[in-house]
Amino acid sequence: MPPPRATTVLTDAETRKLESELVAARNRAAEAAAKPAGDADQP
Length: 43
Known about the structure:
By secondary structure, this protein is an all-alpha fold. Helix content is 53%, strand content 0%. It is built from one helix and no strands.
């Protein structure tokens, strides 16, 4: 058995917030991947 955790478990509100942030990051990454390479910002 592993030793007891030193930190507490996330609350429901914290879990929902993290899930929504992960979904938003996934959507941003999918949009960026869907763009053609020629549309990238040029320096």
